[in-house]
Every structure is written in structure tokens, then in C-alpha cells.
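Replying to the earlier thread about multi-chain prediction with a worked example.

Input:
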Amino acid sequence: MSVVATYRSGVREHGFGAIGTLTRYYAARAVGLITGPGRECPLCDATVREFLPFVELRYGFVRNRAACPSCGALERHRAYARFYRDFIPANFMLPIDILHASAEESLGRVLGRFARRYDLTDYESPPPGHIHLDICEPHLPPASYDLIVLNHVLMCVADDRRAVRALSTLLRPGGMILAGEGILRGERTASQREAGYGGRYNQYGDADIATRFAPMETEVIDVSADLAPSERARFGIADHETLFVIRPPRG
Ligand SMILES: [Zn+2]
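Result:
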């Protein structure tokens, strides 16, 4: 879409506030192209001067240095990808059957390599090749996957405990759920009845997350913790990117 068409559709869908937001977006993009230090995407190996800003017109929000222009991966996807590459071969006998809910296309490059069967799902409008799936009522055969991946999904589900209970029935013995979610340190999880910013119902806190999905156990992993500052800068990964490993209690 041309710049003019982008402004037109932005105003049409989000009002005149979109003009300011889009102007900030294009300004940040231009500055990045001139002053960017050089980045590398660990998902698609693209090298770029700077990642593109991420914009949410509905909220008037622009975040700089976010998206890979080649594969679309955001900061968290780049961090998750590096984690998957080490964690999955270390925890499974490959290949495995993977269910990727609300699948991010960029992560398919990594996950697909480990998979015998790699099923992609979407809740609202599944693109071609995706299964239409409500994770709270997944009409799929029990014990049919080794790994279920879903990122920034549980926080947007009003009854996230029910979703995890339902998804856990799809796991085979030894299986687990990897859920990328942000978490507040030293706080309890706060849930609200109405969806807030970005459709969020839940803001997770590490004070109660270990037992939130009981009887499943939840472990929080900071997937960017082992990165050197130079790697964080090169891959454009934030200081903290967290992911929950949810699995049945190990006896
Ligand atoms: Zn990329």
C-alpha cells in the first residue's frame, strides 16, 4: 500500500489521530534507515540497517526498532526462536507433532523444522491451511500433540485457566505447552472482566504463576537472559522476554 493510501485508510478506520501516529511511524522509520547500527534477524538471517517500527493505530502507539522487514518477526519472536532452537531438541525425541495456536508465520521457520506434523490454528479468521480453533473448546483428538505453542494468547483469553486445562488434554505423555507471555516481577496476576489494551484480560505476575494453571506446573523462563549485550543489540531483542513452560507435574 502506498504512503498516501496508508494515511487514507488509517484515517478512515481510526480517525484523524492516525495522521500523527503514522507520521511518527514514518519519521522513526526514516531515522532508522539513516542512523541504524546494523541488525540481524536470527529467524530469517536478514541483515538490515534497522528494524522497522511497530505501529498500532487504534492505540496511537509506535515502538521503534521492532519488526524485521523481511519476515515480520518482532523482538519477542526473535528471542523465542533462539530459545526454541536449543530447548526443543533438548527436551524431545524429534520429530514431534506441534500445534501452533494463533500462529506467527515467522516462527514457523523454526518450529516447522522440528515437526512431523505442524498444525497452525486461528480463532477468528483462519487463513488457508489453518485450523479454526477455540482453545477453550478444542475439538481435536486427545493426546495428539507433543508440543503446543501459543504466544501472547493466554493473556487475551478471559478464562485462561480453562484454556490451559483444555489444551493439556491434547498433550501426549512428556508433552508441554510453551506460552510466550510478559510477566510482572513481585506481583500477583491481575485479571479483568473486560478486555483492555490490545485485547488483554490477564497481566501475569510471578508471585502466583507457578500454580495458576494447577494441576499443571508453570515455570517462567527469561529467554533473553543468556544473551550478551552485543547479541541483544545485534538481534534487536529486549532485556527481558519471558515464556511459560506449562507441563503436567513430574512425579
Ligand atoms: Zn527476519
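The mean pLDDT is 94.

Feel free to reuse this layout for your own posts.
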